[in-house]
From TrEMBL:
Keyword annotations from UniProtKB, A to Z: Acyltransferase, Transferase
Enzyme class name: transferase
Residue intervals of the N-acetyltransferase domain: 1-161
Annotated EC: 2.3.1.183
Protein name as it appears in the record: Phosphinothricin N-acetyltransferase
Organism of this sequence: Mycobacterium basiliense
InterPro entries assigned to the protein according to its UniProt record, in alphabetical order: Acyl_CoA_acyltransferase (IPR016181), GNAT_dom (IPR000182)
Family annotation (Gene3D superfamilies): 3.40.630.30
One Pfam entry name: Acetyltransf_4
Length: 173
């Protein structure tokens, strides 16, 4: 089941996120956020964008969220997205269901573009994003240093809705 996250989901989200922070360069964070920090992130995303969790048997096994792409006003129709699924549930189709719901909700709110920055190499994430229609838009070379080496970040973009609309995105109500 996909549902909107609450700050009470912070500990479960940290449990999913921890291996990404500690063991990979998928996230450029080098320290796992505290429960209060994660709860604040959830609350912030829920104010204007979205943060969803995926539950299986009453256990959170994945989350996806969107946040501000750039703080300047002209970018208000664009958003950056992220998705994390527990290692034990990767490749089961749950992440696809979760991400589809996130993109749908962002479109409903009036966002026109979704961007994803993906540390390379990450063929699973590249394939997931391309399967939703994301297109490659650029590559930041050697932009992040983690685990004793430099990493590239590929940027992908998805058009969520026609550009002709000019009403700003609506907050979650």
């Amino acid at each position: 089941m996909v549902r909107s996250a609450t700050p009470d989901d912070a500990a479960a989200c940290i449990a999913i996120y921890r291996p990404y922070v500690e063991d990979t360069a998928i996230s450029f964070e080098t320290e796992v956020p505290s429960v209060s920090q994660m709860a604040a992130r959830i609350a912030s995303a829920r104010e204007s964008h979205e943060w969803l969790v995926l539950e299986v048997a009453d256990q959170v096994i994945g989350y996806a969220y969107a946040h501000i792409f750039n703080p300047r006003a002209a970018y208000q129709w664009s958003t950056e997205t992220s998705i994390y699924v527990a290692n034990t549930h990767r490749g089961t189709g749950g992440g696809r269901k979760l991400y589809a719901q996130l993109l749908h909700r962002l479109t409903e709110r009036g966002y026109r573009r979704a961007f994803a920055g993906i540390t390379q190499p990450n063929e699973a994430s590249n394939a997931l994003h391309r399967s939703f229609g994301f297109q490659d838009t650029g590559l930041y070379r050697r932009v992040g240093w983690k685990h004793h080496r430099w990493h590239d970040v590929a940027w992908m973009q998805l058009d969520l809705a026609p550009s002709e609309q000019d009403r700003p995105p609506t907050p979650i109500t």
